[in-house]
Amino acid sequence: MYEVGRCRLRELLKERKMTQAELARRTGIDRKQINDYINKRDIVGVMGLGILRAIAETLGLDSPYEIYEMRKLPK
What we know:
With 75 residues, the chain is α+β, with helices and mostly antiparallel strands. It has 4 helices and 2 strands.
């Protein structure tokens, strides 16, 4: 079983050499909203599934779950 950890959006944008403004333009999500997701990255569940999917598709991720760290829970 896994638990959702911190948001990795800042790292993912840096890896892809993409700005928040570019992500906003390509997804139609407000740049300020994207900035809030990045700065509140320790809050789980900030993004809805539709937003996660749009961001994941734009960043070329296999799954929206890659936007968050996944931590394996001890048995």
